[in-house]
Amino acid sequence: MSHTIVLLPGDGIGPEVAAAARAVLEAVAPHHGLSLTFESHDIGGCAIDAHGDPFPEATAKACATADAVFLGAVGGPKWDGGGPRPEAGLLALRKTLGAFANLRPITLFPGLEHLSPLKEERVAGTDMLIVRELTGGIYFGDKVEGDDHASDLCSYSRDEVERIARIAFAAARERKGRVTSVDKANVLATSRLWRKTVVALRDADYPDVELDHVLVDAMAMKLIEQPSAFDVILTENMFGDILSDEASVIAGSIGLAPSASLSQTHGGLYEPIHGSAPDIAGQGKANPIGAMLSAAMLLRHALDAGGAAAHIERAVADCLAGGVGTADIGGTEHTDAVIAAVCDRIGEAG
Ligand SMILES: NC(=O)c1ccc[n+]([C@@H]2O[C@H](COP(=O)([O-])OP(=O)(O)OC[C@H]3O[C@@H](n4cnc5c(N)ncnc54)[C@H](O)[C@@H]3O)[C@@H](O)[C@H]2O)c1
Ligand SMILES: CC(C)[C@H](C(=O)O)[C@@H](O)C(=O)O
Ligand SMILES: [Mg+2]
Fold this sequence. Notes:
The chain is 43% helix and 19% strand. It is of the alpha/beta class. The strands form two sheets. A ten-stranded mixed sheet has the order 2-1-3-12-11-4-5-10-8-9, with helices on both faces. Strands 6-7 form a two-stranded antiparallel sheet. The two termini are 21 Å apart. Bound molecules: nicotinamide-adenine-dinucleotide (NAD), 3-isopropylmalic acid (IPM) and magnesium ion. 3-isopropylmalic acid (IPM) is lined by residues 75, 87, 90-91, 241, 273, 275.
């Protein structure tokens, strides 16, 4: 049986890293008896330019029927001057797929400890999973946008909190058994509902999982103070967005960080956590590793192909340990050379 993967390269470095995801998927597939079919569609700024819409109907249809969707990145200064926003296309995609559970693993690769802005002894042992709620909160509440006044409503229901918390508790059981829930319960009503719901769920269904709560401002500090203290970090949409960029740099570079956005009704959406990086687009400087590791997450979560996922992850780790890399991780290679090195390694280790 062939699996259909929709590629949404998007804008800026999006096409460069989407090519990396496709390359590793094509390299690994024959070793694991997988047959993959790829389709590419427009989203974001390029879709505004071509169709006047950041999330065209044809893209929505293709994504809905695909086994999984891979997205490069959207956005850029070209579309910042008013009119439709590229980012609206990504938010509509996440909502349409019901991709509520955004998993952002932050792993320190052996041999890359020196890249962290933190001292090596402080960063050693860092291995955390950020579980970010992705289809609720302030991103999706009612908006008022006027010249003299604007507002964004932040709203969460108990059900929305419970379903993302279940993902975090289940993940913790497969890891070190600890969840840190991050909120702003000293100020926000949504955070107080969040905390109450998370505590009740843990007590009822996950009493074996250790749970603590940290306010988001303190969390921004603690991540830097002691990143290795954390196992699973559970948080709402906007806090997760911010903390995951911070955490990615602790492990060396935002270019290394992958993500999976899981749905109850679809195979999910897979994307590196970085953006379209207009400052380096088209120069061969984009680190493709986050995209490749997102492709591995796609294999594991959407296609139940854990062996193929681990095959990509081993090839990536071997190449990084061997000093292959783009400038953001201290290397000298062009994006395409990193892609070629990882694909060669996949072939050798087949
Ligand atoms: N998922 C997405 O599509 C997504 C995510 C974040 C930002 N964005 C959009 O991207 C645009 C640019 O946003 P930004 O500059 O704040 O964030 P960004 O993540 O694009 O870039 C931040 C910094 O990280 C660097 N960087 C990012 N990815 C890299 C990679 N793979 N390799 C090497 N360096 C990398 C960039 O060069 C830049 O210096 C905005 O329009 C924003 O809305 C999109
Ligand atoms: C582009 C933007 C809508 C997006 C987000 O905030 O979710 C991005 O920052 C991310 O982290 O995927
Ligand atoms: Mg972000």
